User: Fold this.
Amino acid sequence: MEISCSSCLTVERTVMVVTYFATGRGSPQQIARGLMSSSLAEELKCLVLYDVEMEARECATRRSVLNQKQYENLATFSWDNIVAEMTDKQTFLAEILLAVALPTGKIGNLAATESVVPVLGTVYGMLMKERFHELSSAQKVVAVTLANEQTHQKLRSKF
Assistant:
């Protein structure tokens, strides 16, 4: 689904938002809450989704860590590299996933943040592979790991 923003932020609405900021009526949080409860909310959402889609398209290149599927790259695979790419190239997506994975009070906590790196890397890898099939290194590493652990044989013996 391609996102169309042809109806986003008309000149009149842009002037209204700028006037809000220029007159100092309310804190930035109050202004943001007011905007999100107005008819502008859908337009703002449209712009944010469009930006996220464009960032995802920019990541779908041969330089992506998720596109490195040679043996040497898979042997030195690290979730940290995948999360680093996400935080560098898709900052907003990283912030959203982190907000879902951790309570606000733990986001600055190094131990708590490090514990969700594999989870964030897995989710990012799955999302990017779904959209861009060539970005599949995370799935290859998981498949090889499961095969090495003889997971299917262990499952059969349990049932």
